[in-house]
């Protein structure tokens, strides 16, 4: 516990000490603000896929959140956090995700890599108590900048879900989407 507190203290002192010039220039968080990410998703089940909701899924999600842009040492990095929802169609029926997402983008001119993670609830409207599931997902991808307000993204990752009484299911997923960032 003491090591963790020491590490946190060192990180905070580094940010305060070396970030003073950036704070004085008042452009440390330029381009921060609202962001919207819409994605089409396909997931293919790994392992045993004989149970309902375990073979495959496809659907769409939309995430509304906040982008925090760090201008540090002439390089921009984005940290995006937000809440999302959508609709996923499984071999057992539809589920409606409600989730929190974090995404880190290492900005380049036109093509930028990113890592993402999200977690939440997959709601079953016909059997909410017994058919709903918790999920966690992580992955990465590439963002293609179209202009200052639009970007396209392509990503892949691992998706794990667990229901109340059923087994844990895992999927490999593919995501294609659009990112909208108003000026």
Task: Report on the architecture of this protein.
The chain has 3 helices and 8 strands, in the order ααβββββαβββ. The relative contact order is 0.18. It has 2 domains: 1-26; 31-180, Porin. The chain has an 8-stranded antiparallel β-barrel. It has helices at residues 2-18, 20-25, 128-131; strands at 33-46, 56-72, 75-90, 93-106, 111-123, 133-145, 150-163, 168-180. Helix content is 15%, strand content 62%. By secondary structure, it is mainly β. It is globular.
Compact description:
The protein is mainly β and 183 residues long. The chain has three helices and eight strands. Strands 1-2-3-4-5-6-7-8 form an eight-stranded antiparallel beta barrel.
Please tag this protein with its features.
8 strands, mainly beta, 183 residues, 2 domains, Porin, globular
Rg over CA atoms, rounded to whole Å, is: 19 Å
The tally of domains stands at 2
Apparent shape: globular
**What level of helicity do the residues show?**
10-25%
CATH architecture annotation name of the largest domain: Beta Barrel
CATH topology value of the largest domain: Porin
**Unreliable spans:** 22-26
Beta-strand portion reads over 45%
Q: Which structural class best describes the helix and strand composition?
A: mainly beta
Q: Report the average pLDDT across residues.
A: 86
CATH class membership of the largest domain: Mainly Beta
| Major sheet attributes | 8 strands, antiparallel, barrel
Order of helices and strands: HHEEEEEHEEE
DSSP helical segment count: 3
Cα(first) to Cα(last) distance is: 43 Å
């Amino acid at each position: 516990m003491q090591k963790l507190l020491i590490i946190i203290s060192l990180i905070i002192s580094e940010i305060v000490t070396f970030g003073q010039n950036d704070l004085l220039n008042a452009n440390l968080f330029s381009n921060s603000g609202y962001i919207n990410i819409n994605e089409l998703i396909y997931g293919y089940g790994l392992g045993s896929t004989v149970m309902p909701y375990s073979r495959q899924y496809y659907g769409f999600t939309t995430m509304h959140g906040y982008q925090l842009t760090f201008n540090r040492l002439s390089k921009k990095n984005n940290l995006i956090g937000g809440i999302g929802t959508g609709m996923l169609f499984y071999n057992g029926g539809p589920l409606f995700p409600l989730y929190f997402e974090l995404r880190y983008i290492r900005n380049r001119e036109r093509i930028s890599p990113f890592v993402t993670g999200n977690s939440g609830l997959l709601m079953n409207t016909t059997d909410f108590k017994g058919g709903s599931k918790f999920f966690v997902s992580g992955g990465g991808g590439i963002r293609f900048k179209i202009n200052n307000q639009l970007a396209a993204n392509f990503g892949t990752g691992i998706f794990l879900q667990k229901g109340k009484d059923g087994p844990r299911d895992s999927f490999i997923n593919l995501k294609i989407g659009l990112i909208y960032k108003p000026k």
